[in-house]
Amino acid sequence: WLLGSSSYAGETVQAYSSCYVTSPNINNWLRTPYIERGDAERLHIEMTFTMRKCVRHNDPSSLQQCKETFNLYYYEAESDFANHQMPTWQPNVYSKIDTIAADTLYVQPRKVQVNNETKHVTIKRKGVYFAFQDTGACITLLSVRIFYVTCPNVTVRYAFFMETPTGPTVSSLVQKKGVCVGNAVEESNPTYLCRSDGSWDILMGSCKCLPGYQGINGTKCVSK
């Protein structure tokens, strides 16, 4: 992979490219820095890239070496230990997320079309490296964004629920206990479920305003 300049969204950006389509046994790797997951249990990786169609070659016999996909891997670790030798650049050392195929391929350089692909993975250790393996495609990786989804801060039924990272899988529901707002007490245990898409669901329990205070829209209690 080579770092160079590329045009994206009307701007010139630094991007990594690999284009060794006529050589056999291509095994080019690119790895992200170490990424600590913090409170997140599931990380999303969004990739923006371009890929050239394999028919664009002077020597038709070279097409048998050409690919129109690349592989995405991850490696979990408790600390940032990686260097040029470790982890070794072998597929069986990493965990494979998926083989990434382009939805749109370009033939002429002036008609390049951009692809966007997002994958997610459950992380159990303190942090992770993501790695990209090229085995013979002509690809430019324009951007990579690592993020996690949360259910936002919300106040309802006079209980405050703090921003909460979603669970480890798409079917996970994370139960969060609410804290009564000022001048309010628990009426029944307030809980909310955080869904994997970042939305709250199934509100149970509530708080109520203390005597001498009146509620406003379920969000605060003010003196009468």
From TrEMBL:
<keyword id="KW-0675">Receptor</keyword>
<dbReference type="GO" id="GO:0030425">
    <property type="term" value="C:dendrite"/>
</dbReference>
<dbReference type="InterPro" id="IPR050449">
    <property type="entry name" value="Ephrin_rcpt_TKs"/>
</dbReference>
<dbReference type="GO" id="GO:0005524">
    <property type="term" value="F:ATP binding"/>
</dbReference>
<dbReference type="InterPro" id="IPR001090">
    <property type="entry name" value="Ephrin_rcpt_lig-bd_dom"/>
</dbReference>
<dbReference type="GO" id="GO:0007411">
    <property type="term" value="P:axon guidance"/>
</dbReference>
<keyword id="KW-0472">Membrane</keyword>
<dbReference type="Pfam" id="PF01404">
    <property type="entry name" value="Ephrin_lbd"/>
</dbReference>
<dbReference type="Pfam" id="PF25599">
    <property type="entry name" value="Ephrin_CRD"/>
</dbReference>
<keyword id="KW-0067">ATP-binding</keyword>
<dbReference type="GO" id="GO:0005005">
    <property type="term" value="F:transmembrane-ephrin receptor activity"/>
</dbReference>
<dbReference type="InterPro" id="IPR008979">
    <property type="entry name" value="Galactose-bd-like_sf"/>
</dbReference>
<dbReference type="GO" id="GO:0005886">
    <property type="term" value="C:plasma membrane"/>
</dbReference>
<feature type="domain" description="Eph LBD">
    <location>
        <begin position="1"/>
        <end position="156"/>
    </location>
</feature>
<keyword id="KW-0547">Nucleotide-binding</keyword>
<protein>
    <recommendedName>
        <fullName>Eph LBD domain-containing protein</fullName>
    </recommendedName>
</protein>
